[in-house]
Design goal:
With about 350 residues, this protein is α/β, with parallel strands linked by helices. It folds into 2 domains: about 220 residues, Isopropylmalate Dehydrogenase, CATH 3.40.718.10; about 140 residues, Isopropylmalate Dehydrogenase, CATH 3.40.718.10. Strands 2-1-3-12-11-4-5-10-8-9 form a 10-stranded mixed beta sheet, with helices on both faces. The radius of gyration is 20 Å and the shape is globular. Bound molecules: nicotinamide-adenine-dinucleotide. Nicotinamide-adenine-dinucleotide binds next to helix 4.
């Protein structure tokens, strides 16, 4: 099979971790006789430096013409002072909107080899952590009107949180369908005791539930959900929620699994072209040292094969190779426990090499 992949190496550790993911994809291509054609795309800080724009239209077009997009991470202190609409993160928001991806799916799963990296007590971790947060991505407060004005001699800021029934229903369906393929439990998270948009959210979810009788729907307020994720994460199978709540809860969920360097995510719309990236940022503090953990990006590439290219065996191969490499004791610094432990500390490229060896 031949697939065109738009590759955004990005800023900070982005080029290092994406480089390893591409090597892993190349190994899979050789093993299965596929051809992955990579097209480099500049976005974020790199695009600001080159074009004065975090996502020039021709770069977005390249992404839209591809079969999927693989992204490292963008941003860094160098671009902290550029105006709001030119910031690296704006490139990311525009990419998501331009690809019309409205659903961000982020697994929170504990790797057995890293169970002791979780900050939670062993008694909680032993019950298992394996859930997915389905987050609405192109609506809500991040995309509402933002303004700051002078009122009675002081600055007053407003951000609008707006959702339509159809926006809620399309992400709701992804939540129900994801749950239907898993343990069939969907938890809809909102703040319906305070927000109108959440009351509409809840109403739409319950109407949709009639179409998915096999899925058990529950409701949870976002503040309670934040507590339950650390108190008893084993209760969750799939969580579906709006943009800002999902942004915050998915970072919390990733922390309880150990390292943010291990976690991939996918963003999908109604077609098969998706955006695949690790959940972490560009980690400028460790950039250029070959010490970043490339596994989140490598697993994002595996998700791309599974969800956009219908290559489940190839995706399994990558995930199994990661697991085997961890079994063999290789660890980047972020997942290395302190003290004498018989494990091997390795850098970004060495971790990539070891994973490739286990692809077979
Ligand atoms: P970050 O995720 O980049 O880093 C947080 C901490 O985790 C740092 O100590 C970092 O060294 C560590 N870390 C992150 N990824 C790692 C990896 N793969 N291996 C080992 N350690 C890793 O978050 P931040 O410091 O808040 O943000 C840095 C920049 O990244 C900012 O400019 C921010 O806007 C941007 N950012 C980009 C994205 C994205 O592109 N999707 C997401 C989040 C943040």
């Amino acid at each position: 099979m031949e697939k065109k992949i738009a590759v955004i190496r990005g800023d900070g550790i982005g080029p290092e971790i994406v480089g390893q993911a591409l090597k892993v994809l190349d190994a899979v291509a050789v093993k299965y006789g596929h051809r992955f054609i990579y097209e480099d795309v500049l976005m974020g800080g790199a695009a600001i430096d080159a074009y004065g724009d975090p996502l020039p239209p021709e770069m977005l077009s390249k992404c839209r013409r591809s079969d999927s997009v693989l992204l490292g991470a963008v941003g860094g202190p160098k671009w902290n002072d550029v105006p709001g609409d030119k910031r690296p993160e704006k490139g990311l928001l525009r990419l998501r909107a331009g690809l019309e991806v409205f659903s961000n799916n982020r697994p929170a799963k504990i790797w057995k080899q890293l169970a002791n990296a979780s900050p939670l007590k062993p008694a909680i971790v032993e019950k298992g952590i394996d859930f997915i947060i389905v987050r609405e991505l192109t609506g809500g407060i991040y995309f509402g009107e933002h303004k700051t004005e002078s009122v009675n001699g002081e600055q007053v800021s407003t951000d609008i949180l707006k959702y339509s029934e159809s926006e809620i229903a399309r992400i709701g369906r992804i939540g129900f369908e994801t749950a239907a393929k898993r343990r069939k439990k969907l938890c809809s998270v909102e703040k319906s005791n305070v927000l109108d948009s959440s009351r509409l959210w809840k109403k739409v979810m319950h109407k949709l539930a009639e179409e998915y009788p096999e899925v058990e729907l529950s409701d949870m307020l976002v503040d309670n959900c934040a507590m339950q994720i650390v108190k008893d994460p084993s209760q969750f199978d799939v969580i579906v929620t709006e943009n800002m709540f999902g942004d915050i809860l998915s970072d919390e969920a990733s922390m309880i699994t150990g390292s943010i360097g291990m976690i991939p995510s996918s963003s999908l719309g109604s077609g098969t072209c998706g955006l695949y990236e690790p959940i972490h940022g560009s980690a400028p503090d460790i950039a250029g040292q070959d010490i970043a953990n490339p596994i989140g990006t490598i697993l994002a590439a595996a998700m791309m094969l599974r969800f956009s290219f219908d290559m489940p065996k190839e995706a399994d191969d990558i995930e199994n190779a990661v697991s085997k490499t961890l079994d063999l004791g290789f660890r980047t610094g972020d997942i290395m426990p302190k003290g004498e432990n018989g494990l091997t500390l390795c850098g970004c490229s060495k971790m990539g090499e070891e994973i490739i060896k286990n692809i077979g």
